[in-house]
Write the structure tokens for this entry.
Amino acid sequence: MSRLRLLPLAVCAVFGCDIDIFIPPLESGRPAGVITGSVTYSGPAPCTESGRIVGTAVLLGFDVEALPPPQGLGTTPVALSVVSGEVLFASVRDQLPFDPGGARRCGGGDVTVTASFSVSPLPAGAYQIRGFFDRDGDFAPTFSIFNLPTAGDVGGGAIANAADVLLGAAPRYQEIGVGEQDGDGRWSMPEVGARVDGIPVTLGLVLPLERPIFHVRQVLDEAFGNDDPYSIVIPSDYQLAVFDPADPAATEASFVRLRLGAGVAADERAAAAEGPFLFPDTPTLTYARFDENGDGTIDAADSIPETSLVPSLQPVGILSRLKEGSPLATTARPAALLQAVTLLDGLLGTVAAPADLREARDEVLLALRPAVLCIDPSDPEKPGVLVNSHTEDGAGNLLVEDPAALEARLSARFGRTIEVATGCLPQGSYAVNLVYDTGQAWTLPNEAGVCAESEAPGDGTCGTRARLASQGILVQIGEPRDPGYCDEHPTPAACAPAD
């Protein structure tokens, strides 16, 4: 997540005056909007330490056209707001245990509390409010390894079906319009800005899983000879030798596959357990079926686009193109995304995965597709393009039997026109991401494996801290094996980075 400046509302509290809440303008000076309401927390009592209540309620305003993975392609909220534990739990403070020596104390059963919140400044548009209570106090929005909820945190948001979610249903987040919308669906901001009041946010779902922390344990590649997890290069004219449902073994072997181990590499575990990382001691990666079409039900319709025989699984694996020369920042105009196929042991194991699959393991297997989606999250009216490097496998089997049906499926999923094209894949460095349907995710490379400009790089160190090399891995899409093919089938211009 890129750095976000917290811009709190200035509230008129003098002599009970009637002046409305001030809405801070955007950085451009244009008028902006604000969403206000109440956040209700219902869950385990917070911990205390050093005489204070640990934790913060974090509320994130996402544009509905750029929701976070796995539902969308958003990488940062438009605005972020926090409510401190001291404010949120002020009404029950006298009921909480405090250790006389200042040690951390947790307990006291469940509590229900409410506090006010505001999220701003917001440009005109439609938004979802998502949030969580950071119960262990490790949230840090400027660092990707600390900017999402972990096990024991309490999730939620402005949810239309909050009661059903607590019983296991998929959440349906409210869409909150800010500004004025014309007959064509376009949003604009009045000169005086816009306020939307009275939005209820509920935080009540205790997250059972840690983030899917991983490293690349092994590369399986029978086509291009990749065998070093620290140097993975795929040609831009990457073609599957075989893609045939009647031959699952040969089909699986045709993919470049990444075997991802839970946590960090074995020789880094001691360092990862220490500050500043404090990674979990016994990490796991949990397999489950993925609601591909987002209808809230796991069924036969939740399959990979290529064939209905293979169900979609999570954690979802996504490779995202990085900005040139910047190992921690992805391109956004457009984003270039390669969605992998998550395999349970292999293709046959994936086909047999039950609808109620939920299994913690120490590794996950990803098969990398020879296809990249190029899409601009900042412009919902701009079409995207799915680039397939070839229309056929090496044996002449079609990779996409019905391109029109695939275009329709992708267009429905991303809320815009998606065209299917044939061309060499966009070259560049790609980050590897694992994502759960809770929005919890992990990305390589990250700050644990990359030194900041202010940190002097050393032998296994960044300044005074350890550098975890397994957290610095990325994947390269490089030069083609057959340059002539790419001359005839160039990468679509829509994939060229503008930022």
About this structure: Residues 33-206 form one domain. The chain has two domains: 33-206, 214-495.
